[in-house]
Write a structure and sequence with these properties.
It is a single chain. This protein is of the alpha/beta class. It has 2 domains: 240 residues, Crotonobetainyl-coa:carnitine coa-transferase, domain 1 (Rossmann fold), CATH 3.40.50; 77 residues, formyl-coa transferase, domain 3. Helix content is 36%, strand content 15%. The chain has 15 helices and 14 strands. A 6-stranded parallel β-sheet has the order 5-2-1-6-7-8, with helices on both faces. Helix 1 links the parallel strand 1 and strand 2. The radius of gyration is 24 Å and the shape is globular. One of its GO terms (molecular function) is formyl-CoA transferase activity. It comes from Variibacter gotjawalensis. Its EC number is 2.8.3.16.
Length: 369
């Protein structure tokens, strides 16, 4: 089967989540991904949770890759890497700024060996600026860009976001997008390029609504004040009688009218000028009945209101199964199989569903010089 990235070789120097996920998506589209690990492998190999005697987190993120072990501080490291550097199309690294240069594998050094390479660095704050060397994780990046402040919960009960937004939407996705752009540019110019991905940069894209409000003269919204962060009864989460939740996204007038009709309320009862009062009255009505009561009513109303599903419930939803999201499998060390991580690569660009193992540590050391 011919895939879009057949013939593309990727050197993956990354660990943990952002870089490995980016490299995984390239692998799923047909690229030959070679993971360069320190002797003994990256830390996530030994982390929980475990499945089939190995880390399932590592397995899901490194399915279908190759693995070599190399001490980048060794005197012969560059010489041993050279054959791979010469044939590589893409290099992805995720060290703090300056580390790859100190190890002798920074962009300038690699470009001298292979001027056609697309070299992508992923870091928290980018390769330059006063905070470029600052340590951080996802929660720090969304905190420092104002995104977390838009919906942090209450002082009494602050909310931890359910998704690693900076890691994936600020690291993995922009890395893949720009690597593909870099490869396309190379098609046109014959030259490679350097890509500086800062996970924090994309977080400002996610604050678009707050930026638009300020630009329009309405000021920056406070915590939970904006229409899409809790300030409107139309875009809200309402608890049911049995402790489940209704996610209401009835923003447009027709959906809002249908939602109110479905729950037996009128616009006169819900005065949106008093947003807090409107939210309280709707919450009181929703809390009168169970999720099982509301689910068919809201579904029939087609009003952008949904019962919040658990991950386990979502996996049983035929909508997602019918789309083939869970057909690909991860093969463990014993030959056991489990669901592979779903990735947003169009089915026509991926290999046919099947069981594929993760990168076995050092199994491909023969690729080194």
């Amino acid at each position: 089967m011919t895939q879009p990235l057949n013939g593309i070789t990727v050197l993956d120097f990354t660990t943990l989540l952002p870089g490995p996920l980016a490299a995984l998506m390239l692998a799923e589209a047909g690229a030959d991904v070679i993971k360069i690990e320190r002797p003994g492998g990256e830390d996530m190999r030994e982390g929980p949770p475990r499945w089939d005697g190995a880390s399932i987190n590592f397995g899901m993120l490194n399915r279908g890759k190759k693995s070599i072990q190399l001490d980048l501080k060794a005197k012969d490291a560059i010489a041993r890497l050279r054959p791979l550097i010469e044939k590589a199309d893409v290099l992805i690294e995720q060290f703090r700024p300056g580390v790859m240069e100190r190890l002798g594998v920074g962009y300038d050094a690699i470009r001298k060996i292979n001027p056609r390479i697309v070299y992508c660095s992923i870091s928290g704050y980018g390769q330059k600026g006063p905070r470029s060397g600052e340590a951080g994780h996802d929660i720090n990046y969304i905190a420092s860009t104002g995104l977390l402040a838009l919906s942090p919960g209450t002082q009494q009960s602050p909310t931890i976001p359910p998704a690693l937004i900076a890691d994936i939407a600020g690291g993995s996705f922009p890395a893949v997008m720009n690597i593909l752009l870099g490869l396309r540019q190379r098609d046109l110019t014959g030259e490679g390029s350097y890509i500086d991905i800062a996970m924090t940069d994309a977080m400002f894209t996610f604050t678009w609504h707050a930026l638009a409000m300020a630009a329009g003269g309405y000021g920056y919204p406070g915590p939970g004040e904006a229409r899409l962060t809790g300030g409107s009864p139309r875009y809200q989460i309402y608890p049911t009688k049995d402790g489940k939740l209704v996610a209401c996204g009835s923003l447009e007038p027709k959906f809002w009218a249908s939602f109110l009709d479905a729950i037996g309320m009128t616009k006169d009862e819900v005065n949106e000028k008093d947003a807090e009062g409107a939210k309280a009255r709707i919450a009181s009505r929703i809390r009168e009945q169970t999720a099982d009561h509301w689910q068919p009513i809201l579904a029939k109303a087609d009003c952008c209101a949904t019962i919040v599903a658990s991950v386990e419930e979502a996996l049983r939803d035929t909508q997602f199964a019918d789309r083939g999201l869970f057909e690909h499998q991860l093969k463990g060390p014993s030959g056991a199989t489990t669901m592979a991580l779903p990735v947003p690569i169009a089915p026509g660009y991926r290999a046919k569903p099947g069981a594929v193992a993760t990168a076995e540590l050092g199994a491909d050391d023969k690729l080194l010089g």
